[in-house]
Amino acid sequence: MKKLTIGGNHLTLYLLLGCALLAGILAIESHNLVQTHGEISLETTPASNRIERTNYTAPAIAAFSEITERPLFSEDRKPLAPSVKAAMAAPVFPLRLQLEGVAITPEAKIAVVRDLSNNKMLQLTAGMTHQGWELTSITNTVATFTRGEQSQELVLKKLK
Known about the structure:
This protein has about 160 residues and is α+β, with helices and mostly antiparallel strands. About 25% of the residues lie in helices and about 25% in strands.
């Protein structure tokens, strides 16, 4: 059998001493943790040292109004002018309809339109709304839609 020698390399000796030291520190800390964990209880701690736990309740969004009113990507971070704020408040979506046909009878006027976003045919009469646009008038070749101050006319295209 071969004899085990530690003296061949001094680095091995230092590593063994370091491991023994760390194992000793670990044993002492775990002993202290077990010992103190058993001693602390709510009855023995004074009321002044107790920490009351409460659930977090988020503040209302109105508390952040100062932050939301200021533009994020502006150097001066000053609030926007009212005209700019009004323009940003209502996004403008163009009318995505195409007039396919018009049916006019003594009882009713019907505009047959195609919704370009989903390619569906719709039959609308005057006064009906679609995507926030109200159909206000129908003539032989034109259907007029309005939304607030905006107005858009759809013209019937002739087949060749």
